[in-house]
Amino acid sequence: MVLMISCSHRACVGCFSKYFTNKIKSCSILELTCPFCKQPDLAGEASDEQASKYFSDLDVLLKKIVEKDTHELFQSKLRDYSLEREPRFRWCAHCSCGFIGADASSMAIECPFCRKKMCYRCRQPWELKHASLTCQEFESWKQQRNPEYQATMNSLLKRNIIDCPNCSLKFTLAKGGCMHITCSRCKHQFCSGCKKTFMDGTKCQVFQSCNKGLHAHHPRNCLFYLRDIMTEALQQLLQVNYGITFQKRLRQARSANSAQDSCRVHYTEYLAELIQKHGIDPAPLLTDRKLQAVLQRERVAVPRMTASESRATYWHRLLDEVQTKVPLT
């Protein structure tokens, strides 16, 4: 029998060997925890010192119970994990090498192996235009001048570039899917629409309703709320209220209803992205009940409807309360 390192759970050598072999080959190193209680919490509560001690002890255990090539893969992943936690370490954007010693005072850094440059902050291949732009402005500039990116905007199956707000890892995600994202590198959980962190209700004390389970505190212009609003209303908000131009529709295949429905979802996401990009408040699109919910979430007293006022008047009063007392973010 083998005793786990961070808890009192135990299992036979064969079972632990199969479990850790599978985890090492297919998962992040942060998932190499006890199969029974999932401890320690390497992606959350465990400190750097605790994680380092755990991996050091785990390395000794794994050397005895898994095959040599599996143990070497673990050590390789552990090395990469340790390097990525070093603030000055960077993987080269051009080759597969990494290096330490980058100068944070300079935006452009050079890989000592391939001699090509990249940005120290966003880690994108270096271009002279980047010198006068922030990383976000540079990425937007590249996208607007990239024909492939423009074509992607019109594709039914367009994919979205997501970057983890915790470790900055970039990966692609198909549109129309779940908005709850778990980073494959650091296991940080966040919303793909607003980047707000998903957290366990027992660890969040913001509102009483937080105790109900895993959740994030999305701003009201996040796709999490806008995806239930009719596209015509989103279009009117953009064009009539703010004068923002947009594509009337995304190209779609009309051979099947499912394709049309899928394109409608993608188009709603496209409009929602514009609303969030321009910092637009979608409160005028919300019903009186949803406006009440916004106030309740933020612990703002919800005004009661008087006997003498119409529902439209009450709605305007709720809207004013939301826009003046509840920040968009």
Describe this structure in words.
- The protein is an alpha+beta fold and 329 residues long.
- The chain has four domains: 2-84, no CATH class; 91-144, no CATH class; 147-285, no CATH class; 289-329, no CATH class.
- Helices cover 39% and strands 10% of the residues.
- The protein has helices spanning 13-26, 48-65, 68-84, 135-144, 147-153, 223-226, 231-241, 257-277, 288-297, 311-325; strands at 2-3, 10-11, 89-91, 98-100, 108-110, 117-119, 159-163, 170-174, 180-182, 189-191.
- A two-stranded antiparallel sheet has the order 1-2. A two-stranded antiparallel ribbon has the order 3-4. It has a two-stranded antiparallel sheet with strand order 5-6.
- Helix 7 (231-241) runs parallel beside helix 8 and helix 9 packs parallel to helix 10 (311-325).
- The longest helix is centred in the C-terminal third of the chain and has 21 residues, at 257-277.
- 15% of the residues are buried.
- Keywords: Metal-binding, Repeat, Transferase, Ubl conjugation pathway, Zinc, Zinc-finger.
Write the layout of secondary structure elements.
Layout: E1 2-3, E2 10-11, H1 13-26, H2 48-65, H3 68-84, E3 89-91, E4 98-100, E5 108-110, E6 117-119, H4 135-144, H5 147-153, E7 159-163, E8 170-174, E9 180-182, E10 189-191, H6 223-226, H7 231-241, H8 257-277, H9 288-297, H10 311-325
Antiparallel strand pairs: 1-2, 3-4, 5-6, 7-8, 9-10
Helix pairs in contact: 2-3, 7-8, 9-10
How many beta-strand runs?
10
Percentage of residues in helical conformation: 25-40%
Instruction: Label the structural class.
Output: alpha+beta
Molecular shape: globular
What is the number of independent domains?
4
Rounded mean pLDDT score:
83
Terminal residue distance: 52 Å
**Biggest beta sheet summary:** 2 strands, antiparallel
Spatial order of the strands forming the largest sheet:
1-2
Strand content: 5-15%
Order of helices and strands: EEHHHEEEEHHEEEEHHHHH
Q: What's the gyration radius in Å?
A: 25 Å
Number of helical segments?
10
Spans of at least 5 consecutive residues whose pLDDT stays below 50 are 155-159, 252-262
